[in-house]
Structures are given as structure tokens and as C-alpha cells.
Amino acid sequence: MTESDFIKAIQLLFPKGNPLREFADFVSKGNSIEKLTSLLFVKDRLESEYKLAAFAQLYSPNNNHTRYLEGISSALSECNNRIVQLTDKVLQDEMQKKVLDNIREIMNRSGF
Asked: What total of structural domains would you count in the chain?
């Protein structure tokens, strides 16, 4: 699933005005660190939504929340995958910045 597929899944699962939907929209436009921060928030909210729906399913067996739970579970799984990917990207970006800073410092000391 691509990032845009993930965003579309969140947009289909939650209506406009829902904080998860708003953050999904933001994630599609931010840089890596902004996306990672937002995804961590989205993950927390999805976990809360899942617990609430599971609780409702348990105590209100007449209402079937199975499809909703499956949708949230799928979104949570994809969110975790994106978090891992973005964490790797952020770490790579930071390492590249440090390497470039070190090269610049060496060049400045050498008179370049």
C-alpha cells in the first residue's frame, strides 16, 4: 500500500472534521519529521478508536462493528509500517546532514 493509498483509506474510514482525517490530510503534505509526528498521533487515535469499537462490540452484541474493527485494524497495521519507513528515512536524513556538516567543517578548516 502506498502512502496515498493509506491516506485514501483513512479518508474513507473517517468523515471530514474527524481529527484522524485531518491529520491524514496533513500527513500527505508534510516533511518526513512532520509526517512521523503526525503518524504517531494517528496511531494513538486509531488505537483508541479500536478499543472503543471493541468495547462497543463486546457490550452491544446487537450492533456489528466487525467491518469497522477490520478497517481500523488494517489502518493501524499500515500506520505502523509507515512509522517504521519514516523513522528510517528521518534517521538517514539526519545522518546525511551530519556527514555534510562534517565535510563542510573539514573544508573550512582546510581553507576551501
From this structure: 1
Q: Domain for residue 99, yes or no?
A: no
Phi, psi torsion values for 74, nearest 5 degrees = -65, -45
Residue 13 CA: distances (Å) to CA of 20, 54, 108: 9, 16, 53
Residue 12 lies in a domain: yes
Count of beta carbons in the 10 Å neighbourhood of residue 20 = 23
Position 110 in a domain: no
Q: Is 29 exposed, middle or buried (0-12, 13-18, 19+ CB in 10 A)?
A: exposed
Pairwise CA distance, residues 6 & 10, whole Å: 6
Q: Report pTM.
A: 0.65
Digit-by-digit pLDDT tens for the chain (112 residues) are 676 777 788 878 888 888 777 777 777 777 888 778 878 888 998 999 999 999 988 888 788 888 889 989 988 998 899 899 889 988 888 888 888 888 888 888 887 7
